[in-house]
Protein 1
Amino acid sequence: MKKCLLLLVLLPVVATAQNVKIPKGANEFTYHQIEYGERNDTSIITVERNPDGSIVILNPKPEGKLIPGYCQTVTSVDYAADSITVTAYYADSAYYYRTGFSRSDLEWRHDGNRHTTSVNSNTLEFDMDEKAPVDVNPLPYYGLNKGVLRSFTRNGQKRLVLAKAEKVKHTSWETSRVWPSRRVSPRELDRIMKERLVVTTRIFDHEQICWGKKNAHIDGGLQAVPNDTVLHYAGGTLILKRVELPHLPHHYQHFVELHQQSNGDAYDRTGSLFIVTPGFFEGINNHPDSLPVFTCRDGQRYQGMMATGSYQPPIELVRFFTPFGVGHFNERMAGYGIDWRDETFYRQEITDLYRCMDGSVCIGIWIGNYDGGGHRVTVDIKSYPNDYVWEEPGEESEFPGEVVSLFNTCNVLEMAGQNYGKLFATDSLTVTFRLENISQSAELRYISTGHGGWGEGDEFVPKQNTILIDGKPAFTHTPWRQDCGCYRDLNPVSGNFWNGLSSSDFSRSGWCPGTATQPVYFDLSPWADGREHTLTVAIPQGKPVEGMFSHWAVSGVLIVEY
């Protein structure tokens, strides 16, 4: 499906602005809005001219079932009254604003029928047929009301072209519709129209993640977890909830929005938002030792971190890091000349993972801490359409592929006894995968952050991650952030040093206090031959220093599109 942000109708360009004749008494003008350069993909804008000289500008309603939040917008221009009224018509209500016609603040350059101005660093050119007997302009906000607009060009590219002018019998669109209406400002109308298109699913609402909560227990496995009930595990440092996510057409884009505040914990902590897989729930609900265990050469045991034939680790959506005490400690640290932010806000796209989420899904979030107050979090999933048309389930909205979690060493059950990802000191992480019937793509979604060891540990030393396929190096990635100083206003109780630096300023292995770590993607389609392959992650993990050890939190999700 073609993505569009406007009403798109595929039509041939039947005329150009230069050869459109305007007959006497013309009262309907059709414009083609060209989306990309000279391509013929256009949307239509229709301008109806009333006998009194006023005009009505409207986009035709798309055919078929429409998405929730769709509205018909109509712009009425009264030249005599010098007014523009924009109305958004919904199924049960309408919102409108009214403004003046002239834009006297713009500076114009005139060259015959061509008029040029600049708005927000964009050059706008209007080609007007000023000999036309009527005044018609589908872009009235710029104050040009003499003659008929033949074409509108933005930054040298045609955006709007007059395709047809004719005399027809019609009744103005808005005269046959009556709704309760409310007057709003232009910005408020824009906000209303956008917000009503967005599908929002609240996952967690100001929930506390802290140490000291009683662990829940559910008999019957993951399927027995009730809907819309927050369950606490790992002493309260991990919470989960089953939610019903909407089944939406494939053209929607999906984002996680996560708000976090300190509720008493002063330190930067690792956090993870993830999908709970059935096998991993057994470790949550019982004990990490009930998960598949990998034993390293040094005898260390690592629970539930690698996929087996019947087990998948949790599917990580967002890896995030709390800053030093934002919110709870702001007032205590007032007077430092820094305007501390009230909370940390993380926003990350998860469209590629949503395919395994729509419907009933159990989502967990963990912040590692031993503080009785801990942290407060609010999590939403917001879905944004890229088309006005709705496709029913079973049509091309279906995602022909799968999402498989291969490994996850982010120990979200840390406070229940799950080991840290220290296995790279003596071993590599190895899993198997098989790709068949791949016609589109197969990617590894990889997240990696290094931790521990103070100044000489892997948190503060760049380390190359190497991914090998069948024992041969295939990809490398060195997670490293050098912009941590940008987030100083999120860290009121970060340690401060004699030279003016704060500990939150230091560069780190793929993260900063107060940020989310972005995944990287590796193309696995060259190995889509139906055979089993091994995938190995190797990291030169540092040795323990003065009792402090280094460890790595890495997760890998296979995303396949057939």
Protein 2
Amino acid sequence: MRLFRAIFCVSIIFNFQFSIFNSATAQGASRWVDSVMNTLSLEERIAQLMVVRVPLDMTDSQVAEFSKTMSDYKVGGVCFFVGTADRQASMTRRFQRDAKVPLLVCIDGEWGLGMRLKDMYSFPRNAKFGLLEPYADSIVYYMGAEIGRQCRMMGIHINFAPVVDINSNPKNPVIGTRSFGIDRERVSQLGIMYALGQQSQGVMAVAKHFPGHGDTDKDSHLELPVINHTREYIDSIDTYPFKQLIKAGVGGVMVAHLQVNEIDKSRPSSLSRVIITDLLKKNLGFDGLIFTDGIDMKGITNTYSDGQAELEAVRAGNDIILLPPDVPQSIQTIKEAAEKDDVLRKQIDYHCRRVLKAKYDLVLPHLKEKIEVPGDDRRAACDEIVAELDLHLDQRIDSVVNNAIAAKAMPGCQIVVLHKGRKILDKTYGHLTYDKKADTVTRQTLYDLASVTKVCATTLAVMKLVDIGKLHIDDRLSKYLPYLKGTDKEHITIKQAMSHCARLKSFDAYWQKTSGYDEILSLVTATPLLKKEGYVYSDLGFMLLSDVVRRVSGKTLDRFVEEHFYHPMGLIHTVFNPIAMLGPMHARLIAPTEVDSIRGLIQATVHDPNAFAMGGVSGHAGLFSNADQVSALMQMLLDGGVYKGHRYLKQKTVETFTSRHYAKQNNRRALGFDKQLFNPSSSAQVCPEASQSSFGHTGFTGTMVWVDPEYDLVFVFLSNRVHPSATPNLLARMNVRTDIQSIIYSYFIPKK
């Protein structure tokens, strides 16, 4: 017994027959809990409320003795601290194998298993995640999910995280960087993301330290901190994150050892019925598991001994007594009090049932799963999450953009980066013009996409028609455009036009000669082909392709893509002729382009003069959108034609159009899409780090989209660099887009 008390600080669990929980699983939680309760004595029911520390540095024989002691005393669970993953996994297997009612296995791993296990991964402290902008909160969700996944692998059911204390006191010796910050809304939101992420993996999250440990200058491990806030402050600040996490469905709450004078001057918060039962349960409506902070901390043991703290913890309304320093004495003290107090005895039964229900929910479904140490794949997953965090916080991108704005390479821009479908960068910079009084760029600002129209409209439309069997890439354009028959363009195929190797002239100022959709196409038809074979980037092929779409589908290009892509995908601000489609009130959302000698300031109408002369809808230009909605189109392509569970294109079609068809002729282009150079260059249209499998397009107005399947990346950059003049093109000269791309890739290219 001395060894148990002095060395092991033991946690014990009731042994039961596996056959009981196998049949109990089928009977449901209530029957299983009843079946176990009926076998437990009063002492054993008290023991079920205790989760104790697993001793460090045990020999194999000591581990066996510790496991046997748990079976004898029938305590509810264990909590691991410092060690190695292999050793912890081995002990967990042993403890669960010896136990016949499963253990609740807990860990205090706020920033991952590496907080306790020296050979496991540690994420940055919460304070760093607290620097995220709200749109990037999903990074915290995925961190929580990864921590939960690794806990599950290790046989852990409860992780005492997240910390949702408000870090309002810079002298706080124990919270500090463990907190998400000083703003109650951000702390709440990030705490919710962490908790929901972890619980998505079947591991209970525990919000701590209730009712708020942020504004203290003492460490409860050493003494009892005192809180002198008013009740109004406590309700509006300290407990606010807990209220929000309770609404979001957090599974557990840990109560701190604090002297909260405004609420209960006579007892520490962890032993206060006023704080736990009245405030947390009744007032805030929390119905999950309630844990004390470690009862072996001096904030408690300096005042309470001989099991009195454990007794008061039960009376106060806690479900689980964490880390009792003397389990036998605690059981005996509580038992003696319960034998004289029917109310206390009913409380014990109530809390025991709740603990058993938690075991039914958290442990039984995973009891047969293999307990194993997370491997290199999980470490890589953690590295990716941290890479996303660091990329978001990297100020180098801000520097590149701000330098470009200062040099008047562009008035402002939008940048969106998606990684594995997650938005990891969504930033706006500058203004719509260089006038300091001009509207700032927002996420709702619409940009003229220029030639990005080729991939976000025309190519998508042709892909869809191929998908449904209305076109084939080897078909001649003249099959659908009778006016090409008998001309030098009669034999041009769809594949050639989309690969820019149809000997079509790059462009011409048709707008100076005529206006109207059909009239412009007549001039295109009459323009002689180039004599030389090979790659020449051309608007003309896409002007003809838009007419192919019209004649095959019976709908103009804008109507076709709106019907098949933009509307069902919810992209209501991806439009041709934005004022006509969205209304005059949206004019201020649209970034102006050039100040033209004929048209004046061009805003809300397409910049490209040929597209303008064609009525604003053409296959080579005319589309307006914002970076968020364009990124959705690119993510759909990256995911093989699927977006939010709905298939828009066949995967084979996407692969066909994003592949090169004339590589032997030294043509880097795919069908509609641009590709990486065969020999990447730092001064090219895409950064040298982009893979050969990547694809995208740039636009004359200062736009760019790029998708890289090898790195699961989507990059969208939109600007109006042509305002107020299209020349000189400082955006390209300064390599603004590609420099930003290179920074992004630096986080996802494996380090050698």
Protein 3
Amino acid sequence: MIRKLAGCVREYKRASILTPIFVTMEVVMEVVIPLLMAKLIDWGIDQGDMAMIVKIGLILVLATIISLAFGVLSGKYAAVASAGFAKNLRKDMYARVQGFSFSNIDRFSTSSIVTRLTTDVTNVQNAFQMIIRVAVRAPVMLIFSLGMAFSVNPSLSLIFLAAIPMLGIGLYLVATHAHPIFERVFKTYDRLNTVVQENLRGIRVVKSYVREDHERAKFGGVSESIYQDFSRAEKLLALNSPLMQFSMYACMLLISWFGARLIVGSSMTTGELMSLISYATQILSSLMMLSMVFVMITISRASAERIVEILNEESDLKDSEQPVGPVKDGSIVFRDVSFGYQGKNGQLCLEHINLTIPAGSTVGIIGGTGSAKTTLVQLIPRLYDATCGSVFVGGEDVRRYELHTLRNAVSMVLQKNELFSGTIKENLRWGREDATDEELVQACRVAQADEFIRSFPNGYDTYIEQGGANVSGGQKQRLCIARALLKRPKILILDDSTSAVDTATDAKIRQAFREQLPDTTKLIIAQRISSIQDADLILVMDGGRIQQMGTHDELMEHSEVYREVYTSQMKGGDEDDA
């Protein structure tokens, strides 16, 4: 885990190395200062030597300035190193997520990934800063101060050695009991983010059903769980403070008691006692800093483990070691394909699919909810890999193509496709970055989107809010279709992507497809039979199998299910949908 995280330091190694160097130099100067104070008292003040007072005083001022300079430099480089480390962590995690297959993403919830990219990275960033600064400062100060204390008075310095084991045992017990609680807390954070995301995404539904109280109660329950766990963990960590305070005051009292007796017996000077008390403060403060480091590491350890889970996750989809060239055409073949989201050990949602689709043909897919229509088409661009059997595109097994090559040849429009913040032009150019304005307009005409775009005051420069909040469902679907067309795909998949479009516009879109995309293979998943009635081939799916296939006329004659659906829609269901 540490090696994986350390790999994210990269260009900030210099700052990460300079920070502990400057910290060490700062500590050296801080340790020298009490010794100079002792000399000032014993050689200057007690002897009444003004020249010595001025000389040692100037050295003290210089040492203080140098210590301050090293402290500023260590703080500066620690901030640069930790912020850069966090930036690289987020960058690497985000890049890894972009390479995930759908099955990888299924293993991590969206809210969990967001929490890992934000809260967890912040925790690790804070821990990293403490490690390169405080975790260096504390042991260096402890060692140097102990050495100086023993050089002043070895017998009194033994008091510190008695306190260190007691503190070490206490810190270990606190850390081991607090870590499992923090692991549980961050998982609860994932649940909290899920609640917030669901609420914001479905806020219209919440308000229309007047469920605000229910949502507040749900959020409050998760939030209360986090509060209870954090309180329990913080109570454990709070034991550090009284433990440290007890040790510090006990050591100070013992040093003062025995030191005063030694001064009375002329075995020790006042300056030596003052320096020893200063070293006692430094030793105990370094122990206090170590306890803070332990606390931060305890909190961040759970976060680090969650981050490394993302960084270690390997995509289920691998490019072929000897990939084939570009996709030749839009022909599709399913050869005894079965698929389950949990692999061979899970329940199969597609079973023994055998299907041949010539290039340029139009295929309609219809079936009830849960019949695996979407799952079927997701195997074509390798959003998932078939559990058994093979899928061929352009005469080649899809696993032989580079993912980039295959997916550039396939455009997929979902029922709930996403628009991103930016202008309409910027959203359309997701299909092809170098598309000209004329090509944008042509794609929008085919998708029946040009007319409503021109009705906006800013036309194609109209700004789209996050998620397409300022356009209607039908407008959003048509923009997504236009975006897909700009790729000039060999295969176009429409997954119920005209459900929010009226039947007249739907018919115009299909007519434009026939005229403008004769060589593109078109797969249309639809609930309305009118959307696929003219297809070259219609698949009727049920329970993960192709129950029957054929043209509209053939299915009307041979498929009772298809005939019932058609009859019910022709009686008025289609008009209701419109």
Protein 4
Amino acid sequence: MKKFLSGFCSLDEAIERFMKKKWAPFVLWPFAILMLYGVFFLFCFQPKMYEKIPFNGEASKALFNAFIIIYEILVLFYFVMLLITRKMTLRKGVFLVFLLSVGFVFPFNMGRVYNDDSFTHDYHVFGEGGHWAIIYDIYATGKIPPVNMSNQYYQPKFYHFLMAMFMKFNSFLVPAFPGSNDIVPNIASNTHFASFTLQAYVAFESARIFLTLEAILILFFIYKTIVELNLSKRASIISAFLIMFTPVFWFLSAYKNNDALATLFMFAALYAALRYRKTHSYYSLVSAAVCIGFGMETKLSAAMVAFPVATVFAFELLKQFRENKKWVAPKKKEFIKFVMQMCVFAVIVFPLGLGGAILMKMKYNMPIGYVWDLIEQYGTDYFMYISPKTYSAFSRLIVFPSPDLFWDMFNVRYAKVNGILNPYGYIDFNCWTAFLKTGLWSEAYLSAGYAFGDIISKFPLLFVFMGVVYLFAIFVGVFFVIGSIYYIVKRIISIIKKEDQSNSFVFYLIAVTFVSSAISYMAFCLRYPVGCTMNARYAMLLYLPIAIVVGTLADKILLRVSVKK
């Protein structure tokens, strides 16, 4: 046993030395991307007619499942061995949580077909006005399609452009096969897709590689952000587990719309800003600016990350006037450098982030920040309408736990029952209820024909497990509310007593992140009162402060318990 433990320690040290090399990412990320291509072409690629089959055979499906199980066992084994050998560090612990979470990304993104509308949002396979059509238009013509303010064509097109170019690249990698130039028969009658060949269809299916990589990168930047906050080891690991094992981070990319890419840019921008706080380098600054700009070109609401990023810059500005806990005049050279860097940031982020929106305003007269209003188009008889007469703003935004939290474990979005609109008790109306449910199960249902309904019919015990998870999520929500009150009161007392506030950065960063995202989310739910607006995908930054508050408070409680023992 000692020999085995010694061998493991030697292996861990070798891996640690490799990971510290500056060139390590240039080896690991190409390897990871090649692995994704390998998984797709080994298990998923099928040179045959257009079908809704995620794998190229039952044997491939079994091997894919075995691959995921073996991967998770190996990562979990490594995690346990680090605990046994007492070689667990903050970075290793959070990184292994990241690797464990990655294993759950594959079934949702690689193990599901691309030409299926289930579990997606506004995608509309082979339909008009959805994200699929936008991507296809760019793929087929190489041009950005014009704006249409009554369907998804009002969206910024950066995500769709990247997807189309990725598919176009993969079209050259797909080997020729019999019938590859034939028109897909299912949609030959649809003139919009009249030239859609089986070769192009296979290229579209390869988008699963992009979606999987997108989800992995979101988790990666969450890992980097948590490490950068420099919390205690246990608080960091608990926080990482809470956020990375929230299922929405596994299936957000499977929505196949622009939400996941916008989320990726937001977390990347926040991490880059935190790196700037340590390095003050132009590389980190420009990275943050570019990520915010690209995020806004993906989805304008990605601008919400500007609030926590601005908090980072505000603290750096404050440092210019503080030295040894006293107010001082700033050092001229350092202050000028900081001002110049902020100017560079503004010169990058504003044209890049708002350029597309301004162009659409000038070319198509589309208002900046425009959102397609379903009630404006379909009226208050719309089947997902949440009537303000029935549900007050207070009950929708403030009350937690809300009654609808206990009506159903899954998100209920349909307000019409037997032709009656908005009968109380038949639709989730509280935004925090919907946030919790959609973060766990998206907008799935327990009825047949839906993913969870079909799975649970085969594995009834899964329903019990999901119920436990649901109760745990409610507990985390309540714990977060208690923790937030605790930290706010503690901070107020600290200010009143005029105690040292030098360690307050994380508190204010997390507070600004939560408040700005929560207000934006609540305002969005109130402005567009339909069931589909109350989705966790519109407020993904909120998971960071929730995880950090719960993780740090849990760490404090566990520390006090261990001290008493």
